[in-house]
Amino acid sequence: MKISEYGEFKLIEKIARDTIYDSQRVVVGIGDDTAAEKVNPGHLLLSTCDALVDGVHFLLDKISPRQLGRKGVAVNLSDIAAMGGKPTSILITLALPRDTAVNWVEDLYVGIKEMCSLYKVNIMGGDMVSSPVVSISITALGEVKPENLIKRAGACVGDAVMVTGPLGDSGGGLEIIKRGLEKEPYWSKLVEKHLNPIPQVLEGQYLAKTGYVTSMNDISDGLASEIREISEASRVGIELWEERIPYSSLLLEAAERLTISPIKLALSGGEDYQLVFTCKSNRVKELMKSFTREFSRELYLIGEIKPAEYGIKLRSIDGQCKELLARGYNHFA
Amino acid sequence: MKISEYGEFKLIEKIARDTIYDSQRVVVGIGDDTAAEKVNPGHLLLSTCDALVDGVHFLLDKISPRQLGRKGVAVNLSDIAAMGGKPTSILITLALPRDTAVNWVEDLYVGIKEMCSLYKVNIMGGDMVSSPVVSISITALGEVKPENLIKRAGACVGDAVMVTGPLGDSGGGLEIIKRGLEKEPYWSKLVEKHLNPIPQVLEGQYLAKTGYVTSMNDISDGLASEIREISEASRVGIELWEERIPYSSLLLEAAERLTISPIKLALSGGEDYQLVFTCKSNRVKELMKSFTREFSRELYLIGEIKPAEYGIKLRSIDGQCKELLARGYNHFA
């Protein structure tokens, strides 16, 4: 049944159920002019918004509504994670054509609620508007103690550059979709990495609390673009070591069979939603050990902070250093 | 020049300037993964989002970008006002076609910033995405002391129903636009009421602080729909008095010359962004006096809260009571 037949108000009533995963915070949830919630004393309020538009950020026939719902939340929680923060609440603006199926919206909310429930993030509000194009625009709120706030600025010469996981998987998955191979079971795991990214929510908070992390960014637009932001904000140069950039065996296999370049995907592919951060150099070993103890996976050391005049360079496997020119995705190009 | 020629990043850099009007709160503004701000101890965090879509909420050729920017902010601040809150911050997601003129976006931001500067609301973040359809989706954040929070629930039998100003002006303005008369200078003031609504930000906070107000709503969808929400949330009935509903002389004139019905516009026209609220009956006179002293304008007593079984009725000028059936605007109908 279409929304236009089912009724907007009835649909909103339906999806507004079971939206609270941390009831301690909530004073007024969905259903008044605004939501009202308690804030933790002594914490800063974090806020961010990110929208996904059909035909630009996703293709309706390539992503399920449940995946889209999960992803819409994930990309926003990832930004909160990149500040060392704990996400607390989201607000969702859905723009939908009148003939959208009610089932589709319900499945979208299954995905949204899965991701929210995972991190105890309350759905505090929303707006549903008719539009010729499907888009999902989310604002995420979070909190962090002032001493744990990690900005892009803060990296110092000599700091280590590190990432929380293998890069390029999402870009590899997108490449497989672009080549129409996404239905082949062999590639499903890589495609899943693109369609169902996992934000590093607990990892970001953990890293921030160690006190060793000096700057951080989430990898939404590709490593090259994210380290450029750290470089600009911190007014430092960066040297990345090509041989140290971590890849999954899945991606290496895909790279060989499909002749795609892992380093290109890592640098410019985007949407990995791992965290890239800088760490005091004398704390790297300690941090790697404790992180592995906590999360049963590795951190990766991939480069070093240099003086600003050094610029941003990639030291390739043969030892040569080349300037890194890649930038983020430009929507309007 | 179009955005696609000018460059997305250059444009964002341009509009991200001068976005802070209360610098005391801001720890991290635009330009990191998320914004970070201080919150007032002992306050609740308020959050709301509202989107405006071309062809649905506005027509690009009937509203200037500056008006659209003001209105996009105003409709969100109005929701914060309706809780008795002080708006503190907004985040803006703009969806724009690639060939949108850079000038148009700059003018939009002139309007956004005018409204923000008026109430010292910081622009803390945003996202700009390409889309075939122009839309502006805003999240507003605010704060309120728990004792001043006014919900839709709270109205009690015997309470007075009141509004902060004349109704129907915005609906009248829209009617004039629909009839293609908006260029006639004679109607410009009424058209302005539709295109440039003023949220009752200070009024809402003032009313909440008196302690006499038991429930409140902003009039975005027409009086009938708003009092129905109060009735449902408070589980009470409501009697509205037709002869007491306030109109501007502008609207009465337009009503006569264009044969439109003021009561219909007040009940279902929407977008007046006045506040409708309920007040303890023995405090009405005191509140009216003090409000007039504070704001040099009047409050209007327009009805009374009845027991739930009474329903929602309009007592017409001839003394007859009829059930009020009108509901809010349904986007997907």
Would you write up a description of this structure?
The structure is a homodimer of 333-residue chains. Chain A has 333 residues and is of the alpha+beta class. Chain A is built from eleven helices and 13 strands. Chain A has a seven-stranded mixed sheet with strand order 8-10-7-11-9-12-13, with helices on both faces. In chain A, α4 (102-118) links the parallel β4 and β5. The longest helix of chain A is centred in the N-terminal third of the chain and has 17 residues, at 65-81. The two termini of chain A are 38 Å apart. The mean pLDDT of chain A is 95. β3 of chain A pairs antiparallel with β2 of chain B, so a sheet runs across the interface.
Low-pLDDT parts of chain A are none
Strand order of the largest sheet of chain A: 8-10-7-11-9-12-13
- State the helical fraction of chain A: 25-40%
Total helical elements of chain A: 11
DSSP, total strands of chain A: 13
For the record, the CATH class of the largest domain in chain A is Alpha Beta
CATH topology of the largest domain in chain A: Phosphoribosyl-aminoimidazole Synthetase, Chain A, domain 2
Distance between the termini of chain A: 38 Å
Instruction: Profile the largest sheet of chain A.
Output: 7 strands, mixed
Overall residue-averaged pLDDT value of chain A: 95
